[in-house]
Design a protein that fits this description.
The structure is a single chain. This protein has a six-stranded mixed beta sheet. Strands 10-9-11-8-12 form a five-stranded mixed beta sheet. It has a two-stranded antiparallel sheet with strand order 1-2. With about 220 residues, it is α/β, with parallel strands linked by helices. Helix 4 links the parallel strand 9 and strand 10.
């Protein structure tokens, strides 16, 4: 795989680094950070691929939960993703940089009026993060039944599907609106710039240059 091509004048230039950027709550923060570092980009209407003005990076707009898949298969060499999604997939990545936004908490929550004595020694938990929930309680030796949901997990305790949920909590306003409370904070979740290991080794110099632009003092965590 080559990382240099010739432009119209015949001068060699490096191919841009490819980065999977998540849709949703993180997108605006990513765009702001890159813009502050001189890497302005925007996705035209209905376009899912964009390049910054310097030609240093090519960005692909994907669903948050799909970022690890694109990076794992090398479609994007780099990606921006939270610990929650990374844990669920379990692929091998380099965590190059922890980004200064998007931090949140993974919490166990339940109905305000739920009596723990009704659990009979076994928790029933609804969640999008089934691998995390299973491993967390298994490591503690707590029997658990994990029910996978893809939508609003807050409905599970309200409708009686499960007395507890494991979910990301930022302000807690959604929990409060549904008469739910945090029972325990399970983990702190951060957002990272990640790399496909093979891509990082092949494009090491360019990736390190990008890290220097985004945060000159922070080294890579691998």
């Amino acid at each position: 795989m080559k990382d240099r091509t010739a432009n119209a004048s015949g001068t060699a230039r490096r191919e841009p680094l490819t980065i999977a950027v998540p849709k949703g709550r993180l997108h605006d923060s990513v765009r702001a950070l890159f813009g502050e570092c001189g890497l302005q980009f925007s996705f035209e209407r209905r376009k899912l691929v964009a390049e910054d003005g310097t030609g240093r990076v090519r960005l692909m707009l994907v669903k948050n939960s799909d970022v690890p898949v694109y990076v794992n298969h090398g479609i994007a060499g780099l990606g921006i993703c939270g610990d929650d999604v990374l844990y669920e997939y379990g692929f091998d990545y380099y965590r190059l940089m922890t980004l200064p936004f998007g931090s949140t908490r993974m919490c166990l929550a339940g109905r305000r009026d739920h009596n723990p004595d009704q659990d009979h020694g076994r928790l029933r938990v609804a969640t999008k993060f089934t691998r995390f929930a299973h491993d967390f309680f298994h490591d503690r030796g707590i029997p658990v039944e994990v029910i996978r949901l893809g939508g609003s997990v807050e409905l599970a305790p309200v409708l009686g599907l499960a007395p507890y949920i494991v979910d990301l909590v930022e302000t807690g306003s959604t929990l409060e609106a549904n008469d739910l409370v945090v029972t325990e904070e399970l983990a702190q979740i951060s957002v990272h710039l990640i790399a496909n290991p093979a891509y990082y080794k092949f494009r090491y110099q360019q990736v390190e240059e990008l890290l220097g632009i985004l945060n000159g003092e922070q080294g890579a965590e691998r």
